[in-house]
Amino acid sequence: MASIAAQPPARTPFVSFVDGAIRAGRRVGLVDPAILDKQSLLESAVAATGLDDFGDRWFERPMDVLLDSIREEARLNAAGDFSAAKQFHHVLRDRLHTQMWFKRHPEILERAIARPVVIVGPMRSGTTRLHRLLASDRRFSHMRSFETISPVPRPGFEEVMAGRTRDFRPVLASRIMKVARLANPRTLSIHPTGPYEPEEELGLLVASMWGMKHEAQWHVPSYARWSEGEDATPAYEHLANLLRLVGWSQQVSSIRPWILKTPQHMMDLPALLKVFPDARLIFTHRDPQAVVGSAASLAWNQTILYSDNVSPQRIGREWLTKTETMIARMRKARDAIPAERMIDVQYEEMERDWSGTMERVYGFLGLDMEPALAGMESYLDQAKALKRTPHRYSLEQFGLSQGEVSERLGDYVRAYEIPSEADLGHLAARRRGVR
Asked: What top-level class of enzyme does the UniProt entry assign (predicted)?
């Protein structure tokens, strides 16, 4: 097995080239400075769309805190503040178009979201695999990557629904993914995807300026701490309405239950269950030694794109603390959930026997797995072809030790009887005859 470097990987020359080009463009007046001011951003979105209804203005509260945190803590480079301004504009423009669609087609808000299946687990605990296995079953509805990036159709989408023109959103998503892979070739190893791949609904929470995506992208600890003390119900209410809009744009039956998943749900289970009171919950678990290291690696590979002042030790501390917080909040929220509404799935269990594990999940959901088996096998074959190289990382790269992680998260491991990945590795080696 190849050794893992003592330091996490550096960012690619492509990012430095783009950053330098933006700086040069600003010096000669070809690129405008990034304006990360709430009022300016709101006015820019209104001017771009000709619309002025943003819906529930609750989103301005997290937006204020996030912008303050970016200005005071994130230390963005030129590429970072340029992309941040574009991201805010995209989200605000989508909010305006969202309200436009609700007014134009009020039947969208009448769509039911009955008995969604929600996968809840720490980052890097196998939630993506479980989500995509279930999404391969046509009895469920799911988000696709291009819809996570651009959940809201543009004006004129009726022409797409009538088959007279193409939806541009998958094309846009493909272009964004190509640039992302240039900026970070490790993307495919960390999170394999494509425009039509099943994807989590994190983008629907970003629509309310909410969620850990911001923390994995920028150093915004003040925003993170503020969010932990807030009620996320308005963000989840908007998420539900966006799901209705996505389902309408997909032209699928509202009878089909949604498959949802994002680690953010660990932080916000009370809000999620307030908005989706009949949700069925699948909790995933994995050895925190792997979860923390992998989460820190994911955040590192994002943050280094946008800032020249990123410390791997700081990233490690942040994501150890965040993982600890996520687990504590999840465990507390579970106390109020009836046992028949939830099931636990171990990462190791899926590694060892995915079909047997999925049989158990389907039993919990009250469904026959047989009609879905061919689709799940097809997904697994495609996943093997898509994932090119293993995602390599270590706790040591981020200034952490196994002992510290065990001390802070050992009770979680014991409570849910989570197998140690080190022990599993030794067992696998013995089975192969390796000593």
From this structure: transferase
